[in-house]
Amino acid sequence: MNGFACKANFSASDFFFAGLAKPQPINNTLGSIVTLASVFQVPGLNTLGVSLNRIDFAPGGLNPPHEHPRATEILFVLYGELLAHFITTANVLVSVTLKQGDIFTFPKGLVHFETNIGKGPAASISGFNSQNPGREDIPTSLFAATPPVPDSVLSKTFQISYQEVDKIKSKIAGNP
Amino acid sequence: MNGFACKANFSASDFFFAGLAKPQPINNTLGSIVTLASVFQVPGLNTLGVSLNRIDFAPGGLNPPHEHPRATEILFVLYGELLAHFITTANVLVSVTLKQGDIFTFPKGLVHFETNIGKGPAASISGFNSQNPGREDIPTSLFAATPPVPDSVLSKTFQISYQEVDKIKSKIAGNP
Amino acid sequence: MNGFACKANFSASDFFFAGLAKPQPINNTLGSIVTLASVFQVPGLNTLGVSLNRIDFAPGGLNPPHEHPRATEILFVLYGELLAHFITTANVLVSVTLKQGDIFTFPKGLVHFETNIGKGPAASISGFNSQNPGREDIPTSLFAATPPVPDSVLSKTFQISYQEVDKIKSKIAGNP
Amino acid sequence: MNGFACKANFSASDFFFAGLAKPQPINNTLGSIVTLASVFQVPGLNTLGVSLNRIDFAPGGLNPPHEHPRATEILFVLYGELLAHFITTANVLVSVTLKQGDIFTFPKGLVHFETNIGKGPAASISGFNSQNPGREDIPTSLFAATPPVPDSVLSKTFQISYQEVDKIKSKIAGNP
Amino acid sequence: MNGFACKANFSASDFFFAGLAKPQPINNTLGSIVTLASVFQVPGLNTLGVSLNRIDFAPGGLNPPHEHPRATEILFVLYGELLAHFITTANVLVSVTLKQGDIFTFPKGLVHFETNIGKGPAASISGFNSQNPGREDIPTSLFAATPPVPDSVLSKTFQISYQEVDKIKSKIAGNP
Amino acid sequence: MNGFACKANFSASDFFFAGLAKPQPINNTLGSIVTLASVFQVPGLNTLGVSLNRIDFAPGGLNPPHEHPRATEILFVLYGELLAHFITTANVLVSVTLKQGDIFTFPKGLVHFETNIGKGPAASISGFNSQNPGREDIPTSLFAATPPVPDSVLSKTFQISYQEVDKIKSKIAGNP
C-alpha cells in the first residue's frame, strides 16, 4: 500500500491533536493514566509509522508492567521525578531515575513500568515508531481478561493457590 | 546490510540443525521446556528472518504466559493435545483446543500460553518470522529478575501484600 | 496499513487450521503433494507475515525444483528420510540428508527440491516468513504455462530440439 | 543484522540521556537551535528505529525550511506558541498554530518549518521513527555547502542574479 | 496488506508503459521536464516497490534542486552530458560529470540537481526503490506554494528583503 | 544497522559507475550478456536498496529463464526490439513486445526471460529495488551446478531419460 489508499482530501487538522496538552484526571488505584495520540486520534499518521502518548502520574502512581507489541518507546519527562524500568529477555532489570527533561528507552516488546517517586504529580511524553503501538497490560491481561484466564494457569504460573488467584482477579477487576 | 556481511565460506551444516528431533527432559515445576532453532543454533539463518522452536510438555505441563518481542508464532502440534491461548490488547482471551497436526497463531508481542490437556506427553513445532524472536517470560521477568523488581511495584501491580510478593519470588526463584 | 484494515470481528477459528494434520493422497507422477496454511486458509495471518505448509512424499517421491518469491522456508521432518537441496546464485548445490526431526533452510527465492530417500512415506512441516509465500514451480512454469512458453525459448534454454521440448511439454501437461 | 551486532555489555545509561532537559543558548540569526537525542547520543537506540530531539526558539525565532530524509516527525510543544507548516509534494502549504501541549506531524521527507509567534521563548520535543533521521537544511545546503553550489544553478533555480546569489551566500555563510 | 488487495484480473499491459520512449517538449524557463513511470502510470507496480522516470534536458537545462521523500534514485544517461550533484546532511556538495551511459546515485531524501552541460539535448532514465517516490521541488515548494509560504519566513530563511522574496515568488509563479 | 556502518570517508566516485555505458562482447551460445551495477560495483549503494543492470542481446539472443530472489526488475529498452515474458505463480505466461523506450516489469522472484526479435543488436537498462538483487539462472542452476544436481532429480522433474539429462548437462556446461 505504501501511503496510497489514504484520504482523497485532507486538512491540517488531520495531522494535529490537542488532546495531550492537559493532565487527565487520575481516578484509579494505580495512580496513572495514559492518553494516546495514535492513528485513531490523528488520522494523518496513517502509513507514517510514528505516534506519541502522554502519561500522567499521581504522587506514588505506577504505570504497571506492560509492553507494546509493535513499537519501541522513548520517554521524555515533562515534570516530576520517575523511577523507570524495563526487563530484558534475559530477565535483567534495567532501571533509571528520571528528572524533568530526562529521556529513557523501552525496546520493542519488552516489559516496562514507571513509578512517580517525586512529591507532586508527574507527566511524560513518549514517542513510538508505530502509528498504532498497542499495549499489552500484564495485570489486566492475566487477571481481568474476558473470558478469564483459567485459575489453573495462573495458579501454576505464579505458584499461588486458586484462592489467591481469585483474590487478585476480584481486586483487579474491581480496580483496573 | 541486506544479506551482505555474512560468512565468506559456508557449508550445508550452517543451514541444518538436528537439535529439535528429540524430546528434551523436563525437570521443572511447570512441566514444559523450549528448544530453540534460531540464528544462534543455525548460523545460516542470518538475515533470513525465520526460525523454529520445539516445545515439550509433560502431562499437565504449562508453557507459562510469555510473548515474543520480535515475531509472530505459528504452532503445529507434533503429538498430544494442547489448550492454547493468547490475550489481545483489548484483554480478550482467545482459546483453542489443539490435537495432533492442528495449528494456531500467536500474533507478534501478544501474551500467550499453552497447557498439555492430554494424558501423555505432548510436543509442538513453531515457526517464527524472525531469526531471533526473543522471549519475555512473564513470571520470571517479574518475579525472578536480576536485580529484583521492587516489592512495591509488584504489590501495587497485583494488589497483593509484600509478603505475598516475597512468597511468589522465592517460589519462582527456586523453581524457574 | 500495518495491521489496520482487518476484520471488525474475529474468533479463535481465524487463527486455527486443522488441514495440516493428516497426510494428503498423492496421485501424481512426482510422488509428493503440498498442503498450504497461508493467509487464504488462516485469515488471522493477515498482516502477521508468517505461514506453514505440509509436504507429503510417497516412497521415492520428489518435490520438484521450485522457489518461493516472497519467503525463506525452514523445513522440519515429521517422519521419513529426505535428501534436500538448494542451489545458490553462484550455482553451488547445497545438500543434506534429513531424518525425523531434522531441520533445513531454503533461503528466499533460491531454487530447492527434496526427495524421499526412505523406504516408507515421509512428511514435513515448513515455516515461512510471509503470510503468502507463493511458489514458482520450475517444470510446470516452463513446460506447462498458459499460454505456453515458446518452443524456441525452451529449445535454446536447454539446448534441446523442438521435438524434445514438445515431448517434455506433453508429459508434464499430462502428469503435472 | 536485526538487532544482532550490538554491544556485548550494556548498562541503563545506554538508553538514557539528560541532554534535552534544558534550553540551549540561541546565538544565531534565525533564533532557534536543535538538540539531538539520536543513536549518536543514546547508543541503546541502535536497531530500535526511534529518536527524539528538542528545539528551542527565541521570540520570533525560525526553525528554517528543512526535511528529514529518513523519518516522519511528530512535534509536541513544551511551552510557547508556534506557527508550524509543511509543504506537500503538490506544493500545498499545510499550516497550524500550536499552543503548549499541542502536537503536529511532519511526514517523512517533506519540507517543514516552525516560527515562534509567542511573546516569550518556546520549546518543543519531537519523536522520529528512525534512530538517525538526518536533517537536510534548505538554506545552508543550497547557499553554504562545501564546495559551494554553482552560482549558475542557484541563479536559475531562484531566478535571481549572480550578485543576489552571492549576497545570500555571504549572509548565510556568515550567519548560519 | 503485503501484495493482497490487488486487481482480480490483470493483463500484460498493467506492467508495461510506452510513455518514456520519446523526449517530451520542454517549454519552461529551467529547460528540463520529468516524465513518470510510477504506480499511477503502471498499475502493476502496486506493492512491488520500484519505478522509473525519464528526464529531458534542453541545452543548458537544469533539473532544479529537489528530493524524493520515499526513494533513492539511480540515474543513467541516455544521451548528452550532465553535471550532477547531491548535497549531504553535512552540507557537502558531491558532484560528477556524466557522459552517455554513466550512472550516478542520489540517496533517499537528499537534495540533488542536474545540469545539461553538453551542446545538444540530453536525457536520462532513473530507477527508484518506491512505486511512488514523490518529488519535493525546492524552488516551487518554497516560492510557489498554495497558500504561499509567508514572506517573513522566506525573508529570514534566505536573509533577503520582502521585496526580493516577492520578486522571486512572481518569477517562479510565472515560470514554474 | 540502518545506514550506520558505512565508510568513514566517501567520494563522488563511490556513487558513480561508467561500466554500463558500452555494449559488452557477446561470446556465448545464448546471445546475451548481463552487466551489473550493484553494491559490488557501486559501493555507495550500500544500505540504499537500489541498483541497475544492462543487458546486451545479439540478434536472436535470449536472456534465459531466471529470477531475482531479492528484487523486482523494471526494464527499459535502450535500442532494438525485445519479446519479454514472465510467468506467474499460477503458471500464466505474461508477454509483451517492447520497442526502444518501452518499459516492462518483472515482479520479485518470478521467472522471466527476453528474446531479441529485431534485426540488429538490442540493449536494455533495468532498475532493481535491492542493492544486490541476485540472479538464479534456471538452466545453469539445474544443469551446471557444482556439485551437479542428481540425474534422478532432473529425470523425474522434466520426465526425460538419464541420457537426455546428461546430454543437456554436457551442452550447458560447455556453453554456459
TrEMBL record, chains A, B, C, D, E, F:
<keyword id="KW-0732">Signal</keyword>
<dbReference type="InterPro" id="IPR006045">
    <property type="entry name" value="Cupin_1"/>
</dbReference>
<comment type="function">
    <text>May interact with bacterial adhesins thereby protecting the reproductive tissues from microbial attack. Has no oxalate oxidase activity.</text>
</comment>
<dbReference type="GO" id="GO:0030145">
    <property type="term" value="F:manganese ion binding"/>
</dbReference>
<keyword id="KW-0964">Secreted</keyword>
<keyword id="KW-0464">Manganese</keyword>
<dbReference type="GO" id="GO:0048046">
    <property type="term" value="C:apoplast"/>
</dbReference>
<dbReference type="InterPro" id="IPR014710">
    <property type="entry name" value="RmlC-like_jellyroll"/>
</dbReference>
<feature type="binding site">
    <location>
        <position position="68"/>
    </location>
    <ligand>
        <name>Mn(2+)</name>
    </ligand>
</feature>
<dbReference type="InterPro" id="IPR019780">
    <property type="entry name" value="Germin_Mn-BS"/>
</dbReference>
<feature type="binding site">
    <location>
        <position position="68"/>
    </location>
    <ligand>
        <name>oxalate</name>
    </ligand>
</feature>
<feature type="binding site">
    <location>
        <position position="53"/>
    </location>
    <ligand>
        <name>oxalate</name>
    </ligand>
</feature>
<dbReference type="InterPro" id="IPR001929">
    <property type="entry name" value="Germin"/>
</dbReference>
<keyword id="KW-0052">Apoplast</keyword>
<dbReference type="Pfam" id="PF00190">
    <property type="entry name" value="Cupin_1"/>
</dbReference>
<dbReference type="GO" id="GO:0004784">
    <property type="term" value="F:superoxide dismutase activity"/>
</dbReference>
<comment type="similarity">
    <text>Belongs to the germin family.</text>
</comment>
<dbReference type="GO" id="GO:0009506">
    <property type="term" value="C:plasmodesma"/>
</dbReference>
<dbReference type="GO" id="GO:2000280">
    <property type="term" value="P:regulation of root development"/>
</dbReference>
<feature type="binding site">
    <location>
        <position position="73"/>
    </location>
    <ligand>
        <name>Mn(2+)</name>
    </ligand>
</feature>
<feature type="binding site">
    <location>
        <position position="112"/>
    </location>
    <ligand>
        <name>Mn(2+)</name>
    </ligand>
</feature>
<feature type="binding site">
    <location>
        <position position="66"/>
    </location>
    <ligand>
        <name>Mn(2+)</name>
    </ligand>
</feature>
<keyword id="KW-0479">Metal-binding</keyword>
<protein>
    <recommendedName>
        <fullName>Germin-like protein</fullName>
    </recommendedName>
</protein>
<comment type="subunit">
    <text>Monomer. In the absence of manganese, it forms tetrameric and pentameric forms which show superoxide dismutase activity.</text>
</comment>
<keyword id="KW-1015">Disulfide bond</keyword>
<feature type="binding site">
    <location>
        <position position="63"/>
    </location>
    <ligand>
        <name>oxalate</name>
    </ligand>
</feature>
<dbReference type="InterPro" id="IPR011051">
    <property type="entry name" value="RmlC_Cupin_sf"/>
</dbReference>
<dbReference type="GO" id="GO:0010497">
    <property type="term" value="P:plasmodesmata-mediated intercellular transport"/>
</dbReference>
<feature type="domain" description="Cupin type-1">
    <location>
        <begin position="18"/>
        <end position="166"/>
    </location>
</feature>
<feature type="binding site">
    <location>
        <position position="73"/>
    </location>
    <ligand>
        <name>oxalate</name>
    </ligand>
</feature>
